[in-house]
Amino acid sequence: MQITDVRVRKVAKEGKLKAVVSITIDDEFVVHDIKVIEGEKGMFIAMPSKKALDGEYRDIAHPINSGTRERIQSTILAKYEESLEDEDSIVVDEM
User: Which PANTHER family match (predicted)?
Assistant: First the structure.
């Protein structure tokens, strides 16, 4: 599995949510609405989720193992850092 494209949409408002990302895998499959969040221990990603009937949030799509999660996270965070230097990035309102 290769992440062949990462699209970063930075969030304009102040807060922990810094960006919303879409990734393309193997030029064939896209995952939208991955969130880049600034936590107490640093930046991390949150996979797309939906609120269940019990009020809990459940991931819609997620990696099966920690190695894949780390690879996706490091790729996204590297692209996010690049986007901070790029003045042409798109800025969207907080979701």
Answer: SEPTATION PROTEIN SPOVG-RELATED (PTHR38429)
